[in-house]
Amino acid sequence: MQDIIVIGGGPAGGSAALFAAKAGKATLVLDNDHGLTKRAWLANHYGVSDISGPDMLAIGREQAEKFGAVFKQDKAVLIESGSSSVTVKTESGDSYEAQHVIVATGLAVDAAQQSGLKLKPGTEPRVKTIIDTDDKGRTSADRVWAAGTAAGVSMHTIITAGDGARVAIHVISELNGERYVDHDIFTG
Ligand SMILES: Cc1cc2nc3c(=O)[nH]c(=O)nc-3n(C[C@H](O)[C@H](O)[C@H](O)COP(=O)(O)OP(=O)(O)OC[C@H]3O[C@@H](n4cnc5c(N)ncnc54)[C@H](O)[C@@H]3O)c2cc1C
């Protein structure tokens, strides 16, 4: 069983996976390679000079993989929430179990809808429907969280990536039973 399954490997999901894996959590990312970021040129991500979307995604994935996150290309179609775990079923017929699931599917909320998660109208331009969450990113289903565009935040990589990290920190804190902070120290 995974500690955390992240559905979606864009800036929100990739960043959530990076934090989760770096915290030592067994982390699986399911992504079907239909994200927005592939088409973006980014000149407004603080601390990063101009970069293409595909390069940002590749670097983010490498960072998460370095800490042990596993990426699989597949589409999640059903999220079944139980009292002690969550099962994610995919288009290719596979089934995965985790203690918690973070949904970071960008504009696509079909899997969330199919799974009965509560949705609501989006407020950002071109975002019709989002997943309803509380202030920590919890959805209407036990152990299922949402982050990034799918959860209605402003569609900019620094914000969606930050939101993925924010929600992952809440999930890690819940797993650890205490508030989690990830700080490395520069000694040079
Ligand atoms: C043309 C364009 C230009 C842009 N320019 C900028 C810019 O200059 N600056 C800026 O800050 N932002 C820009 N953006 C916005 C930026 O790309 C988004 O903020 C960001 O990509 C959203 O991140 P996300 O992780 O929420 O969603 P996404 O990047 O869309 O990632 C969602 C991921 O989930 C996957 N997925 C969806 N459903 C499933 C499923 N059921 N199972 C498995 N995987 C699934 C998708 O394949 C995708 O990889 C631009 C976007 C576009 C389209």
In short:
The protein has 188 residues and is an alpha/beta fold.
Describe the structure.
This protein is an alpha/beta fold and 188 residues long. The protein contains four helices and eleven strands, in the order βαβββαββββαβββα. The protein has helices spanning 11-22, 53-66, 110-114, 157-176; strands spanning 2-7, 27-31, 41-42, 51-52, 70-73, 76-81, 86-90, 95-103, 119-121, 129-131, 144-146. The strands form three sheets. Strands 1, 2, 5, 6, 7, 8 and 11 form a seven-stranded mixed β-sheet that branches. It has a two-stranded antiparallel ribbon with strand order 3-4. Helix 1 (11-22) links the parallel strand 1 and strand 2. Helix 1 (11-22) runs parallel beside helix 2 and helix 1 packs parallel to helix 4. The mean pLDDT is 97. Flavin-adenine dinucleotide binds at residues 7-13, 30-37, 39-42, 44, 53, 75-76, 104-106, 108, 111, 148-149, 155-157, 160.
